[in-house]
């Protein structure tokens, strides 16, 4: 993997430094030393991140009580089921929110009608204007005429 490739790169750098004349070693030696140091630090950080992610994944699997028929669950096994569930949940949530908005609109219209008949006053309702391109062009044309 990456660790073996990094070690092989370090060995090649040492080999080049051994075979090179002193006058030709720079700037190769300094740049490669800096590169190898940065690469090793990055690799250690990535290993720590992998361990944290593995731990978090195990916690999620335990929380949702996911089992993979006796085998240890892999991210592919878990997320191949989790992703469709999330999509279905989002769709149902949006439909429910639309239903609630319609229900509240009906209640508001009913309240306005009751208020109008109870107070016997003239309540004027207007259609809400859309903010789309067509309505803007229409209002612009009307203002020009």
TrEMBL record:
Gene3D superfamilies: Formin, FH2 domain. It holds the Pfam family FH2. It comes from the Eukaryota. Residues 1-115 form the FH2 domain. InterPro entries: FH2_Formin, FH2_Formin_sf. This is Formin-like. The lineage of its organism: Eukaryota, Metazoa, Ecdysozoa, Arthropoda, Crustacea.
């Amino acid at each position: 993997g990456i660790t073996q490739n990094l070690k092989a790169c370090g060995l090649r750098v040492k080999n080049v430094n051994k075979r090179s004349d002193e006058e030709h070693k720079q700037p190769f030696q300094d740049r490669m030393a800096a590169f190898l140091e940065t690469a090793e630090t990055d690799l250690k950080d990535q290993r720590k991140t992998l361990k944290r992610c593995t731990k978090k994944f195990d916690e999620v699997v335990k929380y949702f009580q996911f089992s993979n028929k006796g085998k240890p669950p892999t991210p592919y096994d878990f997320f191949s089921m989790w992703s469709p569930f999330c999509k279905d949940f989002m769709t149902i949530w949006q439909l429910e929110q639309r239903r609630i908005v319609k229900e509240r609109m009906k209640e508001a219209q009913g309240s306005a009608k009751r208020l109008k008949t109870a107070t016997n006053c003239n309540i004027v309702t207007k259609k809400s204007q859309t903010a789309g391109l067509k309505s803007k062009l229409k209002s612009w044309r009307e203002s020009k005429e």
